[in-house]
Input
Amino acid sequence: MTWRSAASVVLVCLGVGLGAIATLGVVVMRDWQDRVHYAGVSAIGVVLVGLAVLVRESFSIIGDKALFTALLMLIVSPIANHVILRSGRIRTLGDWRRNVDDQIEAQ
Output
């Protein structure tokens, strides 16, 4: 077994482990805001799996696509989480600038 194989196995195991923890967190959490935070953790798992492919295949077409996917997840995941949380806050409070401690009118 080469060092590339060993490193890629470790990275895949870590990535799949983070994905499993994120899935468990989404299932266990009661509030939608907590679920979105756990869904963000899964992006790190995808990045680790992409790095495992890159380590295994080096910089080839397959490795480059894995690297591109990992970088795309690093950029898009925080933006998507922010958009989801802001839209949920607008739906809950009516205005995203409203303070959480302000009185929420029952509809």
